[in-house]
Amino acid sequence: MAKLYFYYSAMNAGKSTTLLQSDYNYRERGMRTLLFAPKLDDRHGVGRITSRIGLGAEAYAFDRDYDLFVHTQREHEKGKLSCVLVDEAQFLTPAQVLQLTFVVDRLKIPVLTYGLRTDFQGEPFEGSKYLLAWAEELVEIKTVCASGKKATMNARLDANGERVWAGAQVEIGHNYVAMARDQFDLERVSPIGYHPPEE
User: Best exposed site among 110, 152, 163, 188 by fewest CB in 10 Å?
Assistant: First the structure.
């Protein structure tokens, strides 16, 4: 039975590596897959999924206006697709997440998405919010903070390795480090603006 999956984690947990391994497993068994990656992430070339350990694959690059359902339906008509895989899924729009539900529900093709839950200020990404709400399967890919605790947050660093506390939600090319929430300093970085009263 086809399902929508959201594999999420903090930075540098191996999301792209896991995606590429899943893609390889399908193709090794003679099954056809379709890979998508956001056009704005061009660090390794537009339409390229690359992992930190050197694995890579070509993908269709999408922007905010791209219709993933229409593209998948056309490819499926050319030849049966066994799986659709989406890297950096936090950059999907709500409409694109809805399109992926139609891929699952109408075309009966499993969709595996991989991405971050939150940005460098602890705010949910638009795509991730809807994947968390609508996916049948939520799978955490775990990683560790320098403190030794489980890392769930993503701190942004500048070119000098200093913490960045404000700025645009999406800035490709910065350095990021995964942190445990208690190390992340939500009180300082979150735009919500709550501070516990002093005792």
Answer: 188
